[in-house]
Amino acid sequence: MKKNLARLNRRQFAGLLGGAGLAAFGAPGALAQVNAPSVNRGANGRVVIIGGGPGGGTLAHILRRGSPEIDVTLIEPSSLYTTCFFSNLYLGGLRTLDSITHSYDGLTSIGVNHVKARAAGIDPDKKFVRLEDGSNVPYDKLVISPGIDFKLEGIDGLTERDFDVFPHAYRGGEQSRLLFSQLRAMSDGGTVVVAPPGNPYRCPPGPYERVCMIANYLKQYKPRSKIILVDAKMGFAKQALFMQAFETYYPGMIEVNLTNDIDNQQVVSVDRGTKTVQTAAGMKIKADVANIIPPQKSAPIAHQSGCADGDWCPVNPENFASKLVPDVYVIGDSSTAGDMPKSAFSANSQAKSVSNHIETTFSGKPSYPARYRNTCWSLIAPNASVKVGAGYRVVDGELKKNFTFVSDVDEDAKTRADSYKESLGWYAGIIAETFNKRVEKI
Ligand SMILES: Cc1cc2nc3c(=O)[nH]c(=O)nc-3n(C[C@H](O)[C@H](O)[C@H](O)COP(=O)(O)OP(=O)(O)OC[C@H]3O[C@@H](n4cnc5c(N)ncnc54)[C@H](O)[C@@H]3O)c2cc1C
User: Fold this and answer.
1) Does residue 299 have its Cβ closer than 6 Å to ligand 1?
2) Domain presence at residue 390
3) What are the φ/ψ torsions at residue 82 (nearest 5 degrees)?
């Protein structure tokens, strides 16, 4: 029974507790008895985490390892998580989807309770999470890391039902598979539209790495095809590096249309029947494949829990505690994190700070000042990556960069190959921290 407990779904788990339901879930005795008899689980508090991506997974892992007396429950409806990071390499034909898909077995093996359900709301006074089926999971501290949702109001003709024709591929897994299958089905000479949103959004360099990786695929298999970038912004992350990559590796394949003072190239309507994309400036493109990446906001549960103010969730930058709801933290893409970009690296870094804060809050020991890091590598061609990164500190109540670095435009092939190797090491490292899983470097 002990071995399988962490794999049970919520109903099975409630049944195991003798019909007491999940209100008994965090009761120290119940957990100590059935889940981890070797440690006094739950004696030092119940931490519930919503969302098993790099934010939630990292936190579950390090909290469980660092403080085995804390009872850690991860609410995540899926059994498998496919990373968005490295999904562009899949689109480029350089990696399989399987190689970027990971299970929660490594977390359950160390005693994290995985409740396979979707959170629908919280009661901040009684301190429980309400699941979609109406049952409750009590917490002492709650951490929300649910990622993003899309704002579709500004794009005529685009609803969630149209993501089968216009895949955003900005949540991992099925959407990436769909975009790649559309690219494979396209004839040579076809037109691919990539439409990044305005700021802020998940992974600022992601759309431009994607353009490089799609171009890498087309160059080999459909060399007469072209990519049209219609961007809602004036400029974008690592712009000089990407522009150079477009010209060097994929000459003549990529047309770049930025929104500037004269032209607004933000996508404002799509037509499902004809796959036509129209921008505010009136440019109409008949696409064969259209990757529309809509503007973004925090995931629904962040709003349902009362943590959002507008699109995103304001937090105390020292520890990512919600500014709106007591005993709740918000990390990862859903949070407003000052200068920090919305990235897996950031979410992982924030999880470490929250872990420290929760551990010291429970134990009464002093916590150390928060320091955060981020690096984003982008693969621009096989074996050639560029990177940008920064460190962050709290200055006057805001998270500010305290150092930055970025690849040189004219660096040599070896430096770019070394950056690619670094990115492989980072991927293996963050997967180990998020899922307690060993990934072979490729
Ligand atoms: C194309 C692309 C490339 C990228 N490349 C990089 C990169 O190279 N480096 C980098 O650092 N970042 C990269 N990113 C960004 C990175 O993927 C995200 O920033 C990161 O996944 C955010 O982590 P998170 O934990 O906030 O949310 P997510 O990873 O989105 O995880 C959220 C989890 O919460 C679950 N969830 C949502 N709602 C509920 C609910 N109500 N109840 C229970 N569970 C719920 C979801 O099922 C999901 O598993 C990339 C993104 C894209 C799209």
Assistant:
1) yes
2) no
3) -105, 125
Quote the tokens at residue 52: 């098993």
End residue of a domain, out of 353, 368, 383: 368
Query: At CA 142, angle to CA 138 and CA 147, rounded to 5?
Result: 125
| Share of residues in the chain with pLDDT > 70 (%) | 90
- Would 83 be classed as within a structural domain? yes
Mutate to test the pocket of ligand 1, among 101, 144, 174, 202 (most ligand atoms within 8 A of CB): 202
CATH number of the domain encompassing residue 227: 3.50.50.60
For a pocket test of ligand 1, which of 49, 85, 320, 434 has the largest count of ligand atoms closer than 8 A to its C-beta? Answer: 85
- Pick the last residue of a domain from 272, 294, 316: 294
The alpha carbon dihedral of 200, 204, 374, 75 has a sign of: positive
Q: Is the CB of 434 under 6 A from ligand 1?
A: no
pLDDT digits (tens, 9 = 90+) for 171-225: 999 999 999 999 999 999 999 999 999 999 999 999 999 999 999 999 999 999 9
Same domain, 11 and 144: yes
> Which residue's CA is the closest to the ligand 1 atom numbered 33?
51
118 close to ligand 1 (CB < 6 Angstrom): yes
Q: pLDDT value at position 5?
A: 35
- Parent domain of 188: 156-294
Same domain flag for 160 and 290: yes
Give the whole-angstrom CA distance, residue 92 versus residue 100. 14
313: Cβ below 6 Å to ligand 1?
no
* Count of the separate structural domains present in the chain: 2
Tokens 């981890």 belong to 36
Considering the domain boundaries, does residue 417 fall inside one? no
In a domain, 66, yes or no: yes
Same domain as 216, residue 83? no
Cβ–ligand 1 distance for 88 under 6 Å, the answer: yes
**43 — pLDDT class (breaks 50, 70, 90):** low
Cα R_g (the chain), whole angstroms: 22
Three-state SS annotation for 360-415: HHHHCCCCCCCCEEEEEEEEEECCEEEEEEEEEEEECCEEEEEEEEECCCCCCHHH
